[in-house]
Structures
1.
Amino acid sequence: MPDIQNYSHPEVYGIDGTRNFYIDTKDHITLGVWHILPSNLIEKYGKNESSYEQLLSHGEPIIIYMHGNSGARANDIRIELYRKLRDINCHVIAVDYRSYADSTVVELDETGIVSDVMETFKWVYKRAKGAPIFGWGHSLGTGIGAHAFSLLEKENIYPSGLILEAPFNKISEAIREYSTTKVLRYCPWFDFFIIDPVIENGIVFDTEQNLKNAKVPVLILHAQDDIIIPYQLSENLYNYITTTRNSELTELVLYDAKYEFGHQFICRDQEIEKKIEKFIQNCLK
């Protein structure tokens, strides 16, 4: 992303009815966040930012968006998705983890990033007053979201659903399948020099283990022409977690390579709004 971004004025990115604000965490991290209002509330409340927090309890579904490794909440393709979620009358809470965008810059590890999402969820949960809260993770955000939501359940806080776009089953497998490392993975030193240091530095993101006993309904979306995270990792994740929990809680949608959605463009599925509305309705039943 360019060094200069106007996070304080999201309207310059063409998303009216959006408030920029900050959440302070218990470990003294400040997180940059956008709150995008549902379409049905924009005309009446869009220009009144003082009402945004109160509107989280209005009843519409709330989706916490957890982005991938590159860019930040102002990324163009993410804004496309925000608009589509807004148009099916969902609140969108787009958070930048520590060291991303205008959030506090500190050394990164899995524990810190996961706690950022947990604190964001609790901030929303306190204000939602019973309105359903969902998560949408993309790429690395799927590992972050799965870990955070599984830990929330252990605190008896139950999200309504989790959407995983282009997920992996565990970070070690994602590294092993990445295009630039795939040619090296058969070398005898590969794990020692490539995989082991990542895990030793606290980056595990084992989505299989995090979701295997979780009660949260999960919708997995993956394009078969994704060269960053191959769709087979979604299949592995789906097959694993459906053997350990109710298969009705988990759905896998694979997009044919002919659509050319790759790693980032599933939001351009002409039916994506209907898929998400159906998932939300099924979760709320």
2.
Amino acid sequence: MQKNKTTVRVRYAETDQMGVVYYGNYAQYFEIGRTELLRCSGVTYKFMEENGVMLPVISLSCDFKKSALYDDELTITTSVKKTPSVKIKFDYEITNQDQQLICTGNTVLVFINMKTKKPMRCPEYILEKLNLQNK
């Protein structure tokens, strides 16, 4: 399993009039977690795209447990538990500075060949960087 933690501070613009994080922002928090997990593993979206691979989200799920508030420091724990094939699933857990669970969720992304615009198997270099080959 590949796992990474990253932190973000809730900005005023991400909240509603009650100072609560607007639900649509959680997709961005998941993207931050996913991007940082890949980056820490040595893979970037820029490198994938330069090598003809796109990775669009095809599914997103989020279960809210507690409200995140303006100026909270959130920890996004992102993990990949299963070897990707054509799809890769990222799991998320977001907690606040008091270690209270804010939400859990996941996204599923599909590897797309940029030339053909068709699904493709996960490139070997990504499996190697994520240390997920043959698991």
3.
Amino acid sequence: MTTNRWRLDISYHGRDFSGWAAQPNRRTVQGVLQDWIPRVLRLTDPVELVVAGRTDAGVHARGQVAHLDLPVEVDTDSLQHRLSRVLPPDLVVRRVSPAPPGFDARFAAIWRRYVYRFDDSGTPDPLLTDHVLSMRDRLDVDAMNAAGELLLGLHDFAAFCKRREGATTIRTLLELSAVREGPRVAYTVRADAFCHSMVRSLMGALTSVGSGRRDLDWLRGVLATPHRESSVPVLPAHGLCLEEVGYPTDDLLAARATEARSRRELS
């Protein structure tokens, strides 16, 4: 069967989803989309979406990317509009577009950018409780940025990840930066990829330093630990949002997808 590949740009409010990945008897982003897309296209066969980043339960997304392959004869005109009429209000497909040759939402991505948002004012805005984590301690942004610099680059982040059988925990962190925005702090995390629970664990470690409860020597020791480190708190999901996924130029998509499938190793 000849197919065409389509790119979907997606946003969702994660509160009432059990994450991205389809699961039996669970409401997930992938599950809802894979239920509705065949229905609006009048397909008899199921579809499968491949995503750039499999977000955990409760994590939000503003710039999620997925792809799916559809038979060439399928009429995809106005698919985005048709989905907008049936999808629940906490899930939006913002754009459906033909994918260029070599595009793979997961493997062709060169980075994912998340932002975790905190409120350390002591008087948090109740209207933002679904998106911002209220902190008891005042956060030192300079200390958090200094801590972030220790983690940049290629490392084994086993101390920050829930290990999965056969999966590597080696990643390249490209950006870790905290910015104070009035009563709130936004911490940007950008990497080539993330392992399970990595971002929320990184935020737990960095806020431990930013609150003064831990120091940089502790963080150095954590990074050197070859297994999950129990002293690192995993922050709640609701403060985290996948903001953007980056891809190379179209002529480099296929090469990037091949490279990303190779197992990472520390040099």
